Amino acid sequence: MEKQKLYEELDRWIAEHKEEYLKDVCDLVRIPSVATDKPEDGLPFGRACGEVLRASLALAEKYGFATKNYDNYCGSAVYGGGANSIGIVGHMDIVPQGEGWTTDPFEAKISEDGKYIFGRGTADNKAPALVGLYAMRFLKDHGISLRHKIMMVFGCNEEKGMADMPEFLKREKAPVFTLIPDSKYPVGYYEMGMFDVTLVSPKLDGNLKDLWAGLAVNAESPKAWALLSGLDAASAQKALAGREKLWAEDAEDGVKVWAEKDANEGKESPVTALHRLCGALVDTGLVTGNGKAALDYIRRVSVDKKGTGFGIACRDEIVGDMLSRCSFVRVEDGAVVFRPDIRYPVLVEWQGIREKLEESVKASPFTMTHFANNPGQYISLDHPVVQKLMEISREMLGQPDIQPIATYGGSYARKLPNAVTYGVTVPGRVRLFGFEKGGAHQADEYGDINNLLLNIKIYVRSLLEIDALL
């Protein structure tokens, strides 16, 4: 089929399948697929992730694709033949719902004007993943043969360490090039490295009985709280007098002290709810025993988000400063468990950063019980496929000046050879709630329906053109 007629047919086909696409997204959003830390019933990432994987593979089978389940770590759907594949890898796991939703996060809702679809996973990453599946479906429905087979991979552990991709590579030949629909256009060529770190305090011997902050290690919460014994709300509130965004309420075993992040403090502000809470409890003397030293250390290392408090601040010429977010903490087995989110510039040697981090921890009340390095991703902008992807997306979006993405974020691109993030967020999209709501990992997460449908077209063209190029 001639190219112009093909794209006209693609427009017609997308319009014809719009409602079906939205229904498929809604069905997957209903599954609260937050990965667990431990296996459940033989499922490595828990029952909900097992359920969403089964549903995703069933959907692919319904549309006529051959599928594989890789021991419930992830699964694939394949179109075409050939020895080598082009990959599209999306993740079906999500972060916890969090607070502040005005709609049900697991019952996808379409706005009255029909422009937006709300629900956990509509931006990150269920709706974008189905963009890839629908691009494959168009190729299959029209019998378009390619030199490479197209392999759609449904991941289940992107939000909690990406342990699924190494298992995938043990069981399947890696695609020769992979697109990850989990960022912005025109292409993501650089992702920071990440440290997975767990710090544990000694057993608490004072009045600190519980502590909570952070939806996940990589998802800050707007509020944090501490449970203190031997106090009442009135006395705690008196000690907190004059401090903003802090309050106390009586609890069954004492008093619960709350802290809240100021919505006017930007996304990268160091004043997280946890930083504010720790500072207040230490400075007022409300917390006693060895819990005071633990909270003081958390307060000191969260002084900014550049790693200054840990003594690990560094930068490179591509992305600039490293990112150190200290917003996730729990009390487990009577000890404070603190998990900072540390992301370092790829062009800086990570071993030196680790050594400085270890020095900081050794001088603290904490012990480092776990450390893992998750290397970043970098691919040259001169790579011919990267050049072609930038050309296609700029042209089809009508945005010739959008720049390639170097990001603090992490995607499956770091776990696969010759992989880049490719959309599906369109630069300059409408932000209905500013930057405090509506995005990935936020309350009232949503996808722009017209942009999602446009992405199917971008992916079809991209698959056709890079298939010819590789």
Q: What would you note in describing this structure?
A:
- This protein has 470 residues and is of the alpha+beta class.
- The chain has helices at residues 3-29, 47-62, 126-141, 164-171, 233-239, 273-284, 291-301, 350-362, 384-397, 449-469; strands spanning 66-69, 74-79, 85-91, 109-110, 116-118, 149-155, 177-180, 183-184, 188-191, 193-203, 208-213, 223-228, 246-251, 254-260, 315-316, 320-321, 323-325, 329-332, 335-338, 341-344, 367-374, 377-378, 405-407, 419-421, 424-425, 432-435, 446-448.
- The protein has two domains: 3-192 and 377-469, Zn peptidases (Aminopeptidase), CATH 3.40.630.10; 194-373, Alpha-Beta Plaits (2-Layer Sandwich), CATH 3.30.70.
- The protein is built from ten helices and 27 strands.
- Strand 1 and strand 2 form a beta hairpin.
- The longest helix is centred in the N-terminal third of the chain and has 27 residues, at 3-29.
Break the fold down into its secondary structure elements and pairings:
Blueprint: H1 3-29, H2 47-62, E1 66-69, E2 74-79, E3 85-91, E4 109-110, E5 116-118, H3 126-141, E6 149-155, H4 164-171, E7 177-180, E8 183-184, E9 188-191, E10 193-203, E11 208-213, E12 223-228, H5 233-239, E13 246-251, E14 254-260, H6 273-284, H7 291-301, E15 315-316, E16 320-321, E17 323-325, E18 329-332, E19 335-338, E20 341-344, H8 350-362, E21 367-374, E22 377-378, H9 384-397, E23 405-407, E24 419-421, E25 424-425, E26 432-435, E27 446-448, H10 449-469
Parallel strand pairs: 3-6, 3-7, 7-24, 8-25, 9-23
Antiparallel strand pairs: 1-2, 2-6, 4-5, 5-27, 9-22, 10-19, 10-20, 10-21, 11-12, 11-18, 12-14, 13-14, 15-16, 17-20, 18-19
